[in-house]
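Standup notes
- HV: blocked on the assembly model, inputs below
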Amino acid sequence: MATLDKLQAKFPGAFTTSSFRDNVRVLVNAAKAPTVLFLLLKFLKEECGFDMLTELGGIDYLNYPNATDRYCVVYGLTNTATGERLWVKAFANDPDPELPSVVELWNGANWMEREVYDMYGVRFTGHPDLRRILLPAEFTAFPLRKDYPLRGYGERHNFPIVTRAES
Amino acid sequence: MPLQSASPVLDDDIAGADQEFLYTLNFGPQHPATHTTLRLILTLDGETIVKAVPDIGFLHSGFEKLGEDLDFNQYVTIVDRMNYISPVANEIAWHHTVEKLLGIEITPRCKYIRTILAELARISDHLLCIGAAALDLGALTAFLYAFNTREKVYNIIEATSGQRFHPSYTRVGGLMADISDEVIELIRDFVATFPKAHSDICRLLNRNRIFIDRTKGIGVLSKEDAINWSCSGPVARASGVVRDLRKDEPYLAYGELQSAFKVVCGKGGDCYNRYLVRMGEMLESWKIIAAAIENLPAGPVNVDLDDKLTIPDKQATYRSIEGLIQHFELFMWNRRWETPIEEVYGANETANGELGFYVVADGSGKAFRARTRPPSFIHFALFPLLMEGHQISDVPAVLGSLNIIAAELDR
C-alpha cells in the first residue's frame, strides 16, 4: 500500500501496522502517541489525501487477550477522492490517559472526542470545549470502561430531581 | 441541583460585545419542532441567531454498553431502537459487520431480501424526514401523503417479520425466516403504487413558493465543510460530495444491481437541496426494489447449517440431532460463536448516512466493544455552523433537513 510506504518513510519506527479483512491499521503505542500522533494524522490529511475523519471511537482493552496498553482511540480516515480507508489506532494508559486533539484538522472530531472523553475519560489536549456530551455534567464515572459495572453504581436512583418549586 | 450545561452568553467570542440586547432562548428538550428530545440554547439578537449550542444526551440509554453484554443475535433488538425510523437498515448494518468479523458469506437470496428491506427502510426514512420537515414549515398535506405511503412499508415489514416497528428480522448468517409469497405480492404492489405517491409529494412541494422561500439558501453547507465535518449520506451529497457506499464499496446485492440506480447529488448544500436529494434517492430506491424483487434468487436464506454459525430453523431443531445440538451451541451462554481475536469496521449506507459498527471480538461469543458510528450524532454537530446568522424560524427547517433521530444521536 503506497500510503503506508509514504508514512514509513516520513515516520520511521513510529508505528506498527496490522490488517484484518479490508481494514488496514496503523498502530501508535502509548509511548509515542503524545508526540507522533498529531503529526502523523496531519501528514495523512495533508500529504496523503485523507480529507475526511469518518469515525473516531474509544476502546478499553482491560483484560483483552495480548493487550499491552489500556485505552485506545480509533481514527477512521477516508480519502473522499479515491474511497481509500485507513485506520489509525492510538493508545493511552492510566493514570492520566491523554492524546492530542485533532479538532484543528477535522471539525468533525469535536463531538466524537467529547464522546470518547465522556465514556472513557481519555483527555484530548488542545480540544476547544472538552465537556461531557451525553452524560450530565455531575456524572463522575466513565461508563464504557470495562471496570464499570453494567448496571452502574446506582447513579440512576440517586439522580438529582429538579422539582417545580426550585426550578 | 439543576443540571449544569452550556451557558452560551458567557463564551469569550461574544463576551466582549455589549450584550444587553442579546437574550437566550431555550428550545426544547420538549418542543414539537424538535420531534425528539434534544435541547438547543439559542443566543438571539432580535430574531437573528447569534449562537446556537446544542445540548444532547436526554435519550442516552447505554446501547454500546449493552452491546458488550448481549450476543450478536440479541443485540439486534437494541440496534433496532437506534434509528427507529428505519430499524431494518440498522439490523442489516449490524449483522453486516458481525458477518464480516466472522467471515460469513450470506446466501444470494438473503442478500436480495436484505437489499429490498434496506431500500424500503430508506424510503420510509426519507418520507418521514420530508413529511415532518414540510409539516414544521406549515405544509400538513405532504405529511399525510408521506405517512400514507409509510403505512404500506410498515405493512410489508409486518408481513415479513410479524412486527411492525422493531422487526429484529436479521440473524447472524441469514434471516429470522424466509419471506412468503404474500410479502412478494405486497412489495410488487408497493412498487406499482409508489411513483404516484412520490409525484404527489413532488407536486405539493417542489415548486411550492412558501416551501422554497423557507428552505432555499437556508442552512448552506459547503462541500469543504461537509467533508471536514465528517458528513455522509444525503447531507453530504446535497453539498456535492459524491460518495455513496452502495457504489463505492458495494455490499449485499448492490454490486449486481449497479446498473439499476444512480447516486443523487446536489450542489447548493441548503435545506432545499437536501430535500431534493432525498426525493431523488427515493426514486432510485424504488428502482432498486423493482429490479431486486423481479430477480429474487431461489434457495435458502441462511448459510449452511454445517458451518455452525446460524440458528437452525425449528424443523431442524426438533427433528434432527445436529439441529438440536447446533441450537444449544448458539444459545448456551458459555458456547455461542468462536470469534477471532480481532476487530473490524463495517459500514452500510443507511438513509441518514454512513452507519458503521466497530466490533472488537475477544474470542467469546459476544462483542468486546460494539462501537456505533451514528450519522445523526455527526450531523447534529453541524447545527451551530448551519444556524449562525439565520432567523429563529429557520431552526425547524434546518433541524428537519438534517433528520436528527435522538435515539441514534444519544444511543
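- HV (later): unblocked. Chain B touches chain A through 53 residues (CB under 8 Å). The longest helix of chain B spans residues 108-136.
- Next: hand off to the docking folks.
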